[in-house]
Amino acid sequence: MTYNSTLLRLLEERGYIHQLTDAQGLDALADKQVVPGYIGFDPTAPSLHVGHLVSIMMLRQLQRAGHKPIVVMGGGTGKIGDPSFKDEARKLLTEDLIKQNVASIRRVFERFLTFGDGPSDAIMVDNADWLDKLEYIPFLRDIGQHFSINRMLSFDSVKLRLDREQSLSFLEFNYMILQAYDFLELSRRVGCRLQMGGSDQWGNIVNGVELSRRVDGTQVFGLTTPLLTNADGTKMGKTVGGAVWLNEDQLSNFDYWQFWRNTDDRDVGKRLRLFTDLPMDEIVRLEALEGNAINEAKIALANAATTLCRGEDAARAAEDTAKATFAGGGVGADLPTIDVPAEGIRIVAACTDLGFTASNGEAKRKIAEGAVKLDDEVVTDPNLMIVIAPGATRKLSLGRKKHGVLRA
Prior knowledge:
Structural Genomics Hypothetical 15.5 Kd Protein In mrcA-pckA Intergenic Region, Chain A, six-stranded mixed sheet
């Protein structure tokens, strides 16, 4: 359909829209008033990762269109863990660890959103503020009556676990009710009218829309994004080295920049739309490039995405490091670095300490495959001891894309 509101036109143009509970209703509302919209993030780790970035960017686009983003930290739901499309229950976190994770995660949102007291300024809330105060019997009586077990069992997120005969605890089964209650509570507290999320959250979002209608008679809306996969069908953000973390203390600026620089040619246009603020006419120009020229688009993507998450200085330094390392054959200043003791370090330990490999055993296998280079020379001896003169540096590489610095 053709949208009238700036919000839905922007989201559709950039590829964020998969499902809407009431497209016409939301379009009409967004065309006449500021729409507060939220996405929830459970603090299961000290940092969010690239898999969360579509959600963060949706909140950014919501604000760019003149509406109000609400970031919900799952201090309450994080004590349970979302079972959606998981093969097993999440490890339960202590309250202290959840608080630490929330504090660590908060920082990244300040780079993507403008917080404040204005009509379209973002706010951050913690659902522990209301979920921790719920009384069990009143909650069952007032809220539980609106949920059908038959319908809850039909949701794919639950059905897949049961079809595989994998355990789904009563604790996890309650997650969808608590998420629906979040929407009701946010509607009452801050006038929230929209919940957004990934396509795997559709059932949870619909529950919240229906709960607000049944309990308060309030019309609220839901919107999901498509499942984001790479051109080869793999899930975006999953790499051999692990998650692509958004916090710099979890992943270096250079490695973050390199993740975007290494985008498959076929994914460049989609990622430019979803993960940058570049104008659409510039994106259309960049994604039309072919052959070696497509590298211009990849560098533009890496710079724009890194600038949003890590800052302009980090993006510039990462690009300079890439030029020095790859084009110039030198050692860039922004590469991951370890200090080598006077007695030296074995090459397998150096690979592991730099994060190239998960273990010394894996490093030995990579050496046997001829994938490890020291100063651009292939290493064949897994027992090699690297000794570095005071003040000197050496470059260690794994494959074509992982490089690090050893210094005395």
